[in-house]
Amino acid sequence: MSINQGDAYLRIDHVSKSFGTFEALTNVTLEIYAGEFVCFLGPSGCGKTTLLRAIAGLDIQTSGRIFQGGRDISALPPSQRDFGIVFQSYALFPNLSVADNVAYGLVSTRRPKAEVEGRVRELLTLVGLGGQEQKFPSQLSGGQQQRVALARALAMSPGLLLLDEPLSALDARVRQHLRSELKELQRKLKVTTIMVTHDQEEALAIADRIVVMNHGVIEQVGTPLDIYRHPGSAFVADFVGHMNFLPVERVAADRVRFGSFEFTAPVNGNQDATATLCVRPEDIQIRNVIPGQDNSLKATIDHMEFLGSFCRAELVVNGGRHLKADFSINAMRDLSLEPGQEILIALPADRLRLFRGDAHV
Ligand code: ATP
C-alpha cells in the first residue's frame, strides 16, 4: 500500500501494556504521519520507551493494535516489521569495522557485494563519516559511533526510524551538533521518525510534533510552538519550559484574585472557584508598566542570575510568593535593576493560562 506525505503512516490504536500488575501504558491512541519527526517526551518512567518498543515489536502490547502503512503489525515479530532503530548505547559490534557494522543487515539479506559497498559508502558520506570505513568502533568518539549506528539503522531504507534517546550519552556540544544534523538528515530523507527523549529542549528543537507523556498516558500532542504556548495541562506547562504558578480565586468569568491583586485572565472551560494561573518568565513585562494598569503588580527583586543573553530575576510578590521573570540585558541596564529594588511588573492577559485546582502551586 502506498502512503503519501501527510497521510497517517503509523496508527497506534488503544494500546495498553502491563508488566505484571503494573500498567506502563494506558489506552494510548496516536497517529503519526508519513515524513514526520515526532518526539515522545516525558519524565523518566512515563512509558515512552515502552511505547517505542511496542512499535518495534520488541515488547508486545497487552491490548490494542498497531498499524504501519495500513498493515496490522500488532502481532508481528521485529524482523517482520519495517524499521531501523538506534539506542542510547551505540550497540555497535566492537569486532567489526565501521563498514561491516553498517553493512550487517545488507549482507544478511545477500545483496551483491558491489551494491553493499556502494550503499555503505553512500550512508557513511551521508552521516559525515566518509573515509572512516576501516576503523573500529573503539577508535571513534561517542558522536561518531552514534553516526555509525544511524547509518546502520538507515541501511535497509526503513519506512520508520526509531531513536531511543540517541543523543543522551553525548556531551552537550556534540549533542547539539548531532541534533541539528539529525534533523537535516531526516528532512532530506523524509523518513518517518520517532525519537524518545526526556529533554524538552531537544524535543522543541527537533520535532515536527511532540507527544507529551505522563504516567503511561498521552497528556498532549502538538507542534513545539503549540505545546509551549498552549500547554493543555499544568503538567505540560511545568514540564516544557519554565513556568510560574500562582494560586488564584475566581471573582468573575474573566477575573481572578491573587492576594490583594486582581487580574484579567483567559476564560477557559472550567469556572471553579479556585484555579492555578500560569505565566512564563519571558512573558512578564517590566518596561513601560503604568501604575494602575490592568494586570500590574508590585514586586521586589530577590536576586538575579545573568544567563548570557538575558537575566532571570527571582521576584517576590504579595508577601512571599516567588515568581521568575526574564528581562533583557538592555532592560536590566536601563532600569538599573538590582536585588532589593521594588519594581512594577505586568502579566499580559493574553499570555496567561488558567488550570484547574491547585496543581503545582
Ligand atoms: P526512561 O526515560 O527512564 O527510560 P521511560 O519513559 O522510557 O523512562 P519506560 O522505560 O517506558 O519509561 O518504563 C515505563 C514504566 O514501566 C517504568 O515504571 C518501568 O519501571 C516499567 N517497566 C519498563 N519495562 C519493564 C519491564 N520489562 N518489567 C517491568 N517493568 C517495566
TrEMBL record:
Biological process terms from the Gene Ontology for this record are: quaternary ammonium group transport
**Gene Ontology annotations for the cellular component aspect, listed alphabetically:** ATP-binding cassette (ABC) transporter complex
User: Is 4Fe-4S set as a keyword in this record?
Assistant: no
Q: Which Pfam families match?
A: ABC_tran (PF00005), TOBE_2 (PF08402)
Q: Which residues form the ABC transporter domain?
A: 10-240
Any GO molecular function: ATP hydrolysis activity
UniProt xrefs under PANTHER family = PUTRESCINE TRANSPORT ATP-BINDING PROTEIN POTG, SPERMIDINE/PUTRESCINE IMPORT ATP-BINDING PROTEIN POTA
Tell me what this protein is called.
Iron(III) transport system ATP-binding protein
Species source reads Dongia mobilis
